[in-house]
C-alpha cells in the first residue's frame, strides 16, 4: 500500500547550509503524526516540501505515490493561526468556502461547494455560526473554522501548522477529540511546538532537527527528548497548578524552555 507521505533521501537548502539533510521518512495512511523540533529545526520547511511549495535540492517527495503537485486535491491544509488575517471582513461560510477554490475555478462557488462547506461546518460543530463575521469568533472557534476550510475539499491528508496555538486547554481538548474522529478517515500531520498533548490520539512523533527521526508515542520519554534537543530540559505540565511558588513540574518528562513559545494558560 502506498504511504500517505514518503520522503526519499530528501535534502533542502535555502542557502549553502542544508536545512534538511538526507531525510527519509514514511507516514503510513491512517497515521496521526506530530512534527516537533526546536526553532529553526526545519519543521515549516518540511511541511512546505510536503505541500510542494518548495522543491527538494535533492531526493524525492511523494504523496499517495504521486508528486505533491499531482496530489494537491488530496491535501487539506490549515496554516499557522498567526498567518491568517483575523480582521478580514468575511463571514464564517466565506472562509470555509475558500477551501473549495481550485487553480482553475477561483471565487465562483456552486451549490455543491456550499453544501460541502456547510457539511464541513457541521462536522466542526459550528453550523449556527455560518453567517457570523469570522472576526467575531473566539480563538478556538476560528481554529475550527480553519479546520472546516481544510476539510471542505474532502482531503485524504490533513496538514496542520500549530493548530493549538492561541487556544485554551479546554478548546485544545475539544480540537483533539475532533481530530481523533477525523483520523478514522484521513491521515493527519500536525506541526507543534508543544509536546504536552502527545496523548492517545497521536500515534507517532516526527522529530525534525536537520535530520528526521520518527518515534511511536509509546517510546517518547525524557531521555529520548533530551537526546533530540540536548541541554537542560523541563516541561510544564498541562494539568499543573499555579501558586506563588510557580508551576508544578513533571520531572519524568522534561523539555527545553525553547520548546514552550506558547505557554498554556493555567
Ligand atoms: N526563506 C528562507 N530563506 C532563507 N533561510 C530560511 C528561509 N526560511 C527558513 N529559513 C531558515 O531555515 C531554517 C529552518 O527554518 P524553518 O522555518 O523550517 O524551521 P522551523 O522548525 O519551522 O522553525 P520555528 O520552530 O522557529 O517555526 C532556519 O535556520 C531558518 O532561518
TrEMBL record:
<dbReference type="Pfam" id="PF00005">
    <property type="entry name" value="ABC_tran"/>
</dbReference>
<protein>
    <submittedName>
        <fullName>Zinc transport system ATP-binding protein</fullName>
    </submittedName>
</protein>
<dbReference type="InterPro" id="IPR003593">
    <property type="entry name" value="AAA+_ATPase"/>
</dbReference>
<keyword id="KW-0813">Transport</keyword>
<dbReference type="InterPro" id="IPR027417">
    <property type="entry name" value="P-loop_NTPase"/>
</dbReference>
<dbReference type="InterPro" id="IPR050153">
    <property type="entry name" value="Metal_Ion_Import_ABC"/>
</dbReference>
<dbReference type="InterPro" id="IPR017871">
    <property type="entry name" value="ABC_transporter-like_CS"/>
</dbReference>
<feature type="domain" description="ABC transporter">
    <location>
        <begin position="5"/>
        <end position="235"/>
    </location>
</feature>
<dbReference type="GO" id="GO:0005524">
    <property type="term" value="F:ATP binding"/>
</dbReference>
<dbReference type="InterPro" id="IPR003439">
    <property type="entry name" value="ABC_transporter-like_ATP-bd"/>
</dbReference>
<keyword id="KW-0547">Nucleotide-binding</keyword>
<keyword id="KW-0067">ATP-binding</keyword>
<dbReference type="GO" id="GO:0016887">
    <property type="term" value="F:ATP hydrolysis activity"/>
</dbReference>
<comment type="similarity">
    <text>Belongs to the ABC transporter superfamily.</text>
</comment>
